[in-house]
Amino acid sequence: MKTLSTNQIQHIEEFLISQYNIKYQDTRDEVLDHIACEIEELMNEGKEYDNAFKIIFNKWNKDLSPHPWIRYKNVPSFLGRQWIKRDIISIIVCMIIGLGIPYLLSSFIVDYNLANVLGSSICLTSILLGGFIYIKYFKVKGYRISQLKKDTFSYALICLFYYIMFKESFSYKLLPLILIFLLYQVYYIIEIQKIRSLSKL
């Protein structure tokens, strides 16, 4: 059974960096493993390394090319597609919960004049979460983590704006929006934790 040499593996890794700009090690290792296995399979079927290399990279070209959606424009397509599916589902769930809870509790919120307390609490929680995640994972690099950190911090800044603008005058109508932002942040934090736990394996 033929296996790739250290030089051949290094050649594949350098090609991933130079041709596809896969700069983060965790992603590169995952792709490298798949590609190396497929090249070895072809070599065991009688193909030479150079020929197998060309065949496999032609096969993977579309998946390794940057994703066309602007949010993931520097991310290999196969990763971008996975993330878009998860993000869309989370957006729908966050919107349903974010719109539903204030609606279901509307009479309670209005009767007890809780809009200001809830609005301030949600904004402050969002601001603290955004700052905490940004500081905790400041030096952690990766396609997904970088995007999630940026999004979490962005929502914190939006909530800071709302807090400054409506500190003493939150209305019931603003609660769904800021609650949705907070729920997005919670989803992003869960995603970051998943990525971090997988990288420790």
TrEMBL record:
The keyword Transmembrane helix applies. Keywords: Membrane, Transmembrane, Transmembrane helix. This is Uncharacterized protein. The chain crosses the membrane at residues 88-105, 117-138, 172-190. It comes from Myroides marinus. It comes from the Bacteria.
